[in-house]
């Protein structure tokens, strides 16, 4: 597949990530023309500076990795990140509220981030490994109704990552209108091609270089 690099959000979200490592991430993303770098919000200003004028977007995570913060706090983090230069926002749903069946809360949580993001694209992390298939379907419906641009499988920090089955389920739920991002465990070119075949339009990976050169 040509242009596999444009599927990749080159990702570094570890707590111990340093500014020097983030600079290296951006340098690699520029060299390989990845779709974006995906970082924690404290590094958005640095990435925005390093990637200004390039074809690499600045993506950040919000409410990460648990998704269990107050709605207003997620919205505030989003506004601050976008003001600092974030063009894409990957937010984590409130998984506990989803498990409790409070879908109105889940949708309101997503909508608050979408509204705070303005023109920035919002990707909604479902944390599929913690949800039943029925809950994944409801979460996708909430993301669609709230105006998000993507649904995303995983944080990569819980009990499981992206699976072919989850990506296919999410694609069926959202149809062609939304993007589907697979994250967590996508490490090789073969992994990437299989996930894309299942319906993914973006891949969150720390192994982006290995994927495109494999």
Strand order of the largest sheet: 1-2-3-4-5-6-7-8
What is the CATH architecture assignment? Alpha-Beta Barrel
Determine the structural class based on helices, strands and strand pairing. alpha/beta
Q: Terminal Cα separation, in Å?
A: 12 Å
Question: Oligomer, anyone?
Answer: single chain
Query: Any low-confidence stretches, pLDDT <50, length ≥5?
Result: none
Specify the CATH class. Answer: Alpha Beta
> What is the CATH topology?
TIM Barrel
Q: What is the fourth-level CATH superfamily?
A: Aldolase class I
Beta fraction of the residues? Answer: 15-25%
- Averaged pLDDT: 98
The best one-word shape is globular
What's the gist of this structure?
With 214 residues, the protein is α/β, with parallel strands linked by helices. It has 9 helices and 8 strands.
Task: Explain this structure.
There is one protein chain. The chain is of the alpha/beta class and 214 residues long. The chain has one domain (4-213): Aldolase class I (TIM Barrel). The chain is 45% helix and 17% strand. The protein has 9 helices and 8 strands. The protein has helices spanning 19-32, 44-51, 71-84, 95-99, 103-117, 133-146, 164-174, 189-198, 208-213; strands at 8-12, 36-39, 57-62, 88-92, 121-125, 150-152, 179-183, 202-205. The chain has an 8-stranded parallel β-barrel, surrounded by 7 helices. α7 (164-174) links the parallel β6 (150-152) and β7. α1 (19-32) packs parallel to α2, α3 packs parallel to α5 and α5 runs parallel beside α6 (133-146). The radius of gyration is 16 Å and the shape is globular. The protein starts with 7 loop residues before the first strand and ends with a helix. The model has no long low-confidence stretch (mean pLDDT 98).
